[in-house]
UniProtKB/TrEMBL annotation:
<dbReference type="GO" id="GO:0032259">
    <property type="term" value="P:methylation"/>
</dbReference>
<dbReference type="InterPro" id="IPR051486">
    <property type="entry name" value="Hcy_S-methyltransferase"/>
</dbReference>
<keyword id="KW-0862">Zinc</keyword>
<protein>
    <recommendedName>
        <fullName>Hcy-binding domain-containing protein</fullName>
    </recommendedName>
</protein>
<dbReference type="GO" id="GO:0008898">
    <property type="term" value="F:S-adenosylmethionine-homocysteine S-methyltransferase activity"/>
</dbReference>
<keyword id="KW-0808">Transferase</keyword>
<keyword id="KW-0479">Metal-binding</keyword>
<dbReference type="GO" id="GO:0033528">
    <property type="term" value="P:S-methylmethionine cycle"/>
</dbReference>
<keyword id="KW-0489">Methyltransferase</keyword>
<feature type="binding site">
    <location>
        <position position="298"/>
    </location>
    <ligand>
        <name>Zn(2+)</name>
    </ligand>
</feature>
<dbReference type="GO" id="GO:0009086">
    <property type="term" value="P:methionine biosynthetic process"/>
</dbReference>
<dbReference type="InterPro" id="IPR017226">
    <property type="entry name" value="BHMT-like"/>
</dbReference>
<feature type="domain" description="Hcy-binding">
    <location>
        <begin position="1"/>
        <end position="312"/>
    </location>
</feature>
<feature type="binding site">
    <location>
        <position position="297"/>
    </location>
    <ligand>
        <name>Zn(2+)</name>
    </ligand>
</feature>
<dbReference type="Pfam" id="PF02574">
    <property type="entry name" value="S-methyl_trans"/>
</dbReference>
<comment type="pathway">
    <text>Amino-acid biosynthesis; L-methionine biosynthesis via de novo pathway.</text>
</comment>
<dbReference type="InterPro" id="IPR003726">
    <property type="entry name" value="HCY_dom"/>
</dbReference>
Length: 338
């Protein structure tokens, strides 16, 4: 893998489904495949969504595969295993096409670089019952079952040429351990690992995030570029990451929370938008903590990411407090493949 030097803070894109809704309407939330359905049914909308985040200034684009699985594509798109694997690979091609359309060869020269992170959502996302925000399935599902579910998706993403994996919205340590051990089968692969959390201290399954992060780092620090949180209320981020940093300061941190709105599952809609503190208001505290990967999740569209870009750039240029500046020896600055 080719070593590169990354920026002091890398901006991750935002909520793919939120931005995608501009092109496909309000038919994403509640679908058993969520936004992954549109890999098959509206390919151009997927490409355009990635382009929007490039224009907003994102350094890293996440593939639209959070809820993609062999079983899900078979059940809801009537695809066989081979076709499902090809569709997952095609999701990476959509990102590559978006980069080419927006940046041309510039992305591979000495100018702006945009990395591709292959989204690996939790086993619970495929259950379509919200259990990725509770995690109790790890108590009744065998590790072998979870491995069998994840393996073809991970292999498809790696074969298609992602720069790293985004192992995200993981609710429980048990699934994280399974995934980190599975990752060892692909020793050249890199990944970040982010957890869904139910409060300011615990994962969705109830473990202390500081203990979980330390355990994961000890298990496979060679392949992890960061550990952190995503798909949670933004007010939880700072205390959660402070606890990780206090326990093990050397762990690079990542955060990409939701907007702060609340999803009403009964009505199938997001609520309390007017009551939310703008998520950009939290960025300064994350930068002061030394978070090196910052982005958005549900309900953060390209305009929010554009604001993130402005806040991050101002911090780096004017505050004169660069966030744990990178060198070629730093964990997150080496061994990512372009």
């Amino acid at each position: 893998m080719t070593a590169i030097v990354m920026e002091p803070v890398m901006l991750v894109d935002g909520g793919f489904s939120t931005q995608l809704s501009l092109y496909v309407g309000n038919c994403v939330d509640g679908d058993p495949l969520w936004s992954a359905k549109f890999l098959e049914t509206n390919k151009q909308a997927c490409i355009q969504t990635h382009r929007d985040f490039i224009r907003a200034g994102a350094d890293i684009l996440i593939t639209n595969t959070y809820q993609a699985s062999i079983e899900g594509f078979k059940d809801y798109l009537n695809l066989d295993k081979e076709e499902s694997i090809e569709l997952i690979k095609e999701s990476v091609e959509f990102v590559k096409k978006a980069i080419a359309l927006e940046l041309g060869d510039e992305s591979y020269g000495n100018q702006r670089r945009v990395l591709i992170a292959g989204s690996v959502g939790p086993y619970g996302a495929g259950l379509h019952d919200g259990s990725e925000y509770r995690g109790e399935y790890v108590e009744t599902t065998s590790p072998d079952t979870i491995i069998a579910w994840h393996t073809p998706r991970i292999e498809a993403l790696l074969d298609a040429g992602v720069d790293l994996l985004a192992i995200e919205t993981i609710p429980a340590l048990a699934e994280a351990e399974v995934l980190l051990n599975l990752l060892k089968k692909y020793p050249k692969a890199k990944a970040w690992l982010s957890f869904s959390c139910k409060d300011e201290e615990h994962t969705s399954h109830g473990e202390r995030i500081c203990d979980v992060a330390a355990r994961c780092w000890s298990l496979n620090s060679n392949q992890l570029v960061a550990v952190g949180v995503n798909c949670l209320h933004p007010s939880y981020v700072t205390p959660l990451l402070k606890s990780i940093h206090k326990k093990l300061p050397k762990i690079p941190l990542i955060a990409y929370p939701n907007s702060g709105e609340r999803y009403n599952a009964q009505l199938g809609q997001w609520e309390d938008k007017d009551k939310c503190v703008p998520v950009v208001n939290y960025i300064r505290s994350w930068l002061e903590l030394g978070v090196q990967f910052i982005g958005g999740c549900c309900r953060t569209d390209a305009e929010v990411i554009r604001k993130f870009r402005g806040h991050i750039d101002y911090w780096i240029q004017h505050e004169k407090k660069p966030v744990r500046p990178c060198s070629v020896d730093d964990k997150i600055c080496t061994d990512l493949k372009l």
